[in-house]
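A protein record in our archive is deliberately plain, so that people and models can read it alike. The record that follows is passed on verbatim for readers who wish to inspect the format.
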Amino acid sequence: MPLGLGRLQRAILINLQNRHANLPIILNRLLWEIAFDRDEIRRTGHQYRSKEAIIEEGTIKKSFDINFRRAIKNLEVKQIITIKKEKVTDLDSVLLHLPYITSKLEVFQIRTVLLPTIMKYITKNNPMIRHKDFDPFYYQIQTLREERILEYKTLQSEWDKIERNIVKLLANVDFKRFDQWLDALLWGRYYFRGRKERIISNPPLSTKTPEEASLVKKINTLSQKIKLLNDFKIGDTKKVLYAIFNVPRYRETSLSYELKHYLFEEKKGLLRSLPGDEDAQKFAPSHFTKSEYNLINRKYSPLLNDLFTRHIFRKLSFIELPT
């Protein structure tokens, strides 16, 4: 243990040393663990009890949060720890880190309790099928165009060479595979030339001639470069997540009604215990059974809308010990 460390710094370092094989760890998880250990959670006294869980209102104490982050910064300056910031790209990692990306105790607890059920829902219902219009390839291209223009222009230059060779194939209107290669041309022009109308994601291409084989190889190489980028992987994850919660541009996020209903069927007692949850009590019209009608029209706790927020797509701070 290095000399001259304060008590909080020592607590942080001991925690990291005890889990050395499982580093890096996100900063927020370390914050929550030490806050619980040192009783630095300010509880309001409001509790929501059910057979499944007890959800408590509260927050990490502001003074502790400030002192913790100051201690982390000092450890980094002294090169006792290292911190790297990066986006989480795959769905499993997003769900693993999700409970800790909040300062509210009730949000931390409701995420921790309900995440296994949400994962069960994702596996069972494959919600991304209902969000098939989300295009991770286009999302990655747009991110490059807006944030890393030089990288985008390099890829665009590669497409430019491919495009010119496709045009040569299309010079002969009697070419048997004219329409296949026309689709390929329109595919590339959508992503790299600003064409408005989208063509199918992966147009089937022939390799019957050396020229065609060479072009297919170049197109596949270009596509693979884009698919390996982090934002493409994030786009694939978003395709699932956007199917289970709504992300309007200027309003708060909200959980989909399909997932709320599923959670209710799986965890009725827990959901009924949450603030603002109300069962519908009206009689059903003739084309509904009473239970169907009441399920559709019941009110769910606003707390469920905090299960997912935009914060999960931001860069997270990961802490580890220097090698």
The chain has 13 helices and seven strands. The mean pLDDT is 85. The two ends are 15 Å apart (CA to CA).
